[in-house]
Amino acid sequence: MDITAVDSAAVLGTSRLHKASAAAKVAAFTLVLTTVVVTSDVFVLFSALALLVSLAVGMRLPLRRMLPLALYPAVFAAVFAFASAPSVLSAVLIIGKAVTAALGGVILMFATPYPQVFAIVQRFVPGIVGDALLMTYRSLFLLAEKLTNLTTAVKLRSGLAAGQPVRAFRATTRSLGGLLLYSLDLSQREYDVLRLRGYEGRLRVRAIPSADRAMDRAVVVGAAGLLAITIIVRTMPDALGAYTWIFATLTILTLLVTAITRWRKS
Q1: Terminal C-alpha separation, the chain
Q2: Distance from C-alpha of 131 to C-alpha of 252, rounded to nearest angstrom
Q3: Among candidates 207, 186, 192, which has minimal Cα distance to 138?
Q4: Which of 9, 33, 60, 142 has its CA 20 to 30 A from that of 25?
Q5: pTM here?
Q6: Number of CB atoms found within 10 A of residue 136's CB
C-alpha cells in the first residue's frame, strides 16, 4: 500500500465528502460496520456494497487505488469461508462482509486526513495509545522514504539488472535489517525529542470544523437508514426477506446512474 498516495488523496481532495467533518464520517463508518456485522441477508449486504461504490464514484475518489485495498481482506475471508462455511451462500456472505467493511474503511482513509481521524479516536482511548497512533503515522512516512532509497540502492548496486538474483536477495535482506535498526533508532530519537520539549502524556490535535454540514447529515442519515433497514429485515425475515432483492436492484441502479453521470462529466 502506498501510504503517501492515500494521504495525498485525503489531504488534497476537494469533493464534498472531503469537506464533511471527520466526526460525521467516522460515525457513518461505524454505522456501516454495524450493518455489516448485523446483516445476514446477501441482498442487503450487497446493497450496502453498491451504495459505498456509488459514493466513491460520485465523489470522484480514486477507485483504481481503492478497490485493490478493499479486496485484500477477501483473500483471507475466502480461506476462512472455505474452511468453515456450511454452504455457498454462507461463504458469499462471509466474503461480502469482509469486502464491504474494508471498502467503508478505505473510503474513510481516502476522504479524511489521518490526524483528523486521530482527533476523534483520541477521545476514547488512553493517552499513551492515542499518542502512539499519531507518532506511528508520522514514522510511516519517514520509513517509506527510507525504504524507497534502500530499494533504489539495491537495484543499482546489487547487480539485479545483470541477472544476479542471489546477490540481489542478499543485498535486500541486509537493507531490510538496516531499515529495522533505523526504525528502532527513530523511535528512540522521537521519544527523546518529546521529552525535551516537555511531553507530559498527551498530544492534542485540533479538529477541523465541517465545511459542508449538509454532507455531514447526508452521510450519517444514509448510514443510519441502511442500518435501520438491516435491523428490520433481520427481525422480520419471514415478512420482508423475500423482497430484499428489490432494495438490491435499486442500489445497483443508483450505482449505474452515478457511474454514467460521472462518465458524461469527465
Answers
A1: 27
A2: 41
A3: 186
A4: 142
A5: 0.79
A6: 13
